[in-house]
Design brief:
The protein is α/β, with parallel strands linked by helices. Helices cover about 30% and strands about 15% of the residues.
Length: about 290
């Protein structure tokens, strides 16, 4: 697996996978199916949003180690992938590492991903940056002197990079990291329809359909979504659900406007991007050169 660091240059990592994880599918599935990460104790907070909805946060229990109110310990925001949560393996592992550094970690669930459906018909998507902006603004008001950084995985990485590009030099972070980002959403959904990657697509569709049906048994839907169980691809889901609920014309419009690749050139915050050239969720053509 070749990792690429994109800052002002490309750097090939010396990372070598274990011999028994010999292909990208093994490397993708192993942490989900066979690796155990002990649960991490966190403190829950519900952040009310300007539109009447909410997102749920989970904070590490790291105390603020600084005794100087003008130099508080850093806060690291963690953003998850599609249908992820604080229970995801990568989330608990990263939060534990943040806690071990003596920093404060805050995991932000996207709308409807914490185990409780959100209040509004809209939910979240790969290009929705308003909720991240609301969290950062809240943290800045609470602690204007605390250094802020963010780490985003997959869809959450796309959200983070797009937001950083939208703000440019005005982004109030000291650093950012994005891991396994779907830079080109159209490329990603096309890849998920090929070969073994269709297994990931089926799992994602099941999770998305279940969450969407659960929400719309509690609130009225403004759209005729039809039978979600008949959808056979992520493109169909985005055409029938994501696009109409979030103001896009169709899936193509959603992918075009929400892909982070076009925003990278405007990022001014020091940003580390980690990406595998053989990522099974997209083709190498999606990786920015």
């Amino acid at each position: 697996m070749k990792y690429t660091e994109i800052l002002n240059r490309d750097t090939e990592s010396a990372f070598k996978p274990a011999w028994w994880l010999h292909n990208p599918h093994c490397q993708t599935l192993w942490p989900h199916l066979l690796r155990f990460t002990p649960p991490l104790k966190t403190q829950h907070e519900r952040l009310e949003l300007p539109d009447g909805d909410f997102v749920d946060l989970n904070w590490t229990l790291t105390p603020d180690s600084s005794t100087d109110s003008l130099r508080p310990s850093p806060i690291i925001i963690v953003l998850h992938g599609l249908q992820g949560s604080v229970r995801s393996q990568y989330a608990s592992g990263l939060l534990r590492a943040i806690e071990g550094m003596g920093w404060r970690g805050v995991f932000m669930h996207f709308r409807g991903c914490s185990g409780e459906p959100n209040r509004l018909a809209r939910c979240y998507h790969a290009g929705e940056t308003e909720d991240l902006a609301a969290l950062v603004a809240t943290l800045r008001r609470r602690e204007p002197y605390a250094p802020l950084a963010a780490v985003g995985f997959s869809l959450g990485g796309n959200v983070l990079l797009k937001w950083l590009g939208e703000l440019g030099a005005r982004a109030p972070l000291q650093a950012a990291v994005a891991v396994s980002v779907p830079f080109d959403l159209a490329n990603t959904v096309q890849r998920l329809e090929q070969g073994f990657s269709r297994i990931y697509q089926e799992r994602l569709l099941l999770a998305l359909g279940k969450a969407t049906r659960a929400k719309f048994t509690r609130i009225a839907t403004p759209e005729n979504l039809g039978d979600l169980r008949r959808l056979r691809s992520m493109r169909e889901y985005d055409d029938k659900v994501t696009a109409p609920l979030h103001g896009f014309t169709d899936a193509t419009d959603y992918y075009t406007r929400s892909s982070s690749r076009q925003y990278l050139k405007a990022i001014r915050v020091p940003t580390l991007i980690l990406h595998a050239a053989d990522d099974p969720f997209m083709t190498p053509q999606a990786i920015p050169a």
